[in-house]
Amino acid sequence: MTHTVEKIGGTSMSRVHELRDTLFRRDGDLYGRIFVVSAFGGITNLLLEHKKSGDPGVYAQFAHADNDRGWHEGLDRVAVAMIEAHEAVLDHPADVERATDFVRGRIEDVRNALTDLQRLCNYGHFRLAEHLLQVRELLSGLGEAHSAFATTLLLQRAGVNARLVDLSGWRDEGDVTLDDRILRAMDRVDPATEMPIVTGYAQCAEGLMREFDRGYSEVTFSRLAALTGAAEAIIHKEFHLSSADPNLVGQDAVRKLGRTNYDVADQLSNMGMEAIHPKAAKTLRQAEVPLRVTNAFEPDDPGTLIDDQPAETPGVEIVTGLDIIALEVFEQDMVGVKGYDAAILDVLKRHDVRIVSKLSNANTITHYVDSSLKVMKRVEKDIAALYPQAEIRSKTLALASVIGRDLSTLRVLQRGLCAIADAGHECIGATQGPRNVDVQFVMDRDVLKPAIKALHGEFIGTGESLKAAA
């Protein structure tokens, strides 16, 4: 049968009870749909570390513990937060009780496992650092297992033949590939007569967090769609993919994308606003599975379809931006000498710094990176050790990007610079590649928001111009 594989993000999961009679019963159809769920909103931050602020969760407290108190208290906070999360979405007292027992059992199992590991590593033959990746995986799977369990209870209570598919490998053999883990779990599942609720985390021999860290749920989602031959992969978010941030340019000014391709999805990932993790997009692209991004709370809206089709006509689709740091390495002896850039790249890779864009001339290489000044100070120190005569500096800047499947003939670079200047602001630099899918404008950080608004007005339109066009 033709089925879809659909993913619900963490923020939407915290409102999953609102989706019970809408999203899960789309057009009255219950089955032929496989759902992959993330942890409830905020839970993974408590388990690992806060994604934005960096505040330590259980993992960070355990990894850097001087004593047991911090991570034990962290686990207690996770238990309280998990129970509050499922109490907010489950109505029936029996379901709440079962979910609470599930949380307490898993939390205590994790506590015992970490205590045993800590005790083992008191012996000189064992090093805690060698086991931290497994600890991170163990903790991550806890969040998705909980949300999937609670969602299954919620749907079963509503008369849906929902089935929990736990890929977290709890008390299971660990030496299993991701594909084998998925195929074994789905072997006896019949999407035609039941609704599988699948954990976004999958324990496997490859170790999802080694490469993808917190992007693992989209990797599980994409592999599940590819392996089961899904007709479509669907991601349900709390918003539509729009031409810009509506809070920035105005709700009446933004347009839903409606249709785009994987090239644009890759550019969005590069700008830190992933429609989907780039490795997950690659999996879907190679399996020829189209991706749809919808607003979970507008189930009748088809959202935005992402596939491999080129644009019929040139056009700008989205304007976005990102705070960056410019790492500039000036070395007079660089002229005509090979290898400078490779050495700098090695340093950036060693410090796990993500490169957004770069440019170079005869004696200067500038990398625009998504990082912090604290990390960049360490990067500067390592580069200075390699090139003691070089002048190295890091500067906080911002980068605005105009993105579309085909920007040819639109004079985006020229018109963009003029639009920013007409708004009373100045660019430090701008770049456009021959592929014609994005144009980037570099500026001071305090210019980014008004620049995005100006660029959006130029290429997409203001609220007033859109109303006039209608």
From TrEMBL:
EC number: 2.7.2.4
Class of enzymatic activity (EC top level): transferase
Swiss-Prot/TrEMBL keywords: ATP-binding, Kinase, Nucleotide-binding, Transferase
GO molecular function: aspartate kinase activity; ATP binding
GO-annotated biological processes: homoserine biosynthetic process; lysine biosynthetic process via diaminopimelate
Domain spans labelled Aspartate/glutamate/uridylate kinase: 4-295
Domain of life assignment: Bacteria
Record's catalysed reaction(s): L-aspartate + ATP = 4-phospho-L-aspartate + ADP
SUPFAM superfamilies, per database record: ACT-like (SSF55021), Carbamate kinase-like (SSF53633)
Annotated GO CC locations: cytosol
PANTHER family recorded: ASPARTATE KINASE, ASPARTOKINASE
Family the entry assigns: Belongs to the aspartokinase family.
Protein name: aspartate kinase
Annotated source species: Primorskyibacter flagellatus
